[in-house]
Amino acid sequence: MSESTERTTVFKAPRGGLMTDEVGVISGELELLTDADSDGTLALKVRYAGADEWYTIQGGPFTLHDARDHEVLHEVLVSMLHRPQP
């Protein structure tokens, strides 16, 4: 990806964890990475907080209508993924 801007945030996985392409479901304390190119191509990756290896969140490819929405989308995703559990 060219001219990309990465954003990362640590969060606690929702109940049931997050499905990845490479290893299936992961849970616990995770870190979300979003990376958007100027053309709107969006990468969504996750890893265990502090780990080296990133995993692709299942469901892509993802494309933003406007690359300027990247920061807002990142915050919305973190809010959705880090919901308090009953």
Structure description:
This protein is mainly beta. The chain contains 1 helix and 7 strands, in the order βββββββα. The longest helix is centred in the C-terminal third of the chain and has 12 residues, at 70-81. The mean pLDDT is 89.
Short description:
With 86 residues, this protein is mainly beta. The chain contains 1 helix and 7 strands. The model has no long low-confidence stretch (mean pLDDT 89).
| Tally of DSSP helical segments | 1
SS strand fraction = 35-45%
How many strands appear in the DSSP assignment? Answer: 7
- What's the helical proportion of residues? 10-25%
Uncertain stretches: none
Radius of gyration: 13 Å
How is the main sheet built? 5 strands, antiparallel
The shape, in one word, is globular
Average pLDDT, rounded to a whole number, is 89
Instruction: Name the helix and strand elements from N-terminus to C-terminus, one letter apiece.
Output: EEEEEEEH
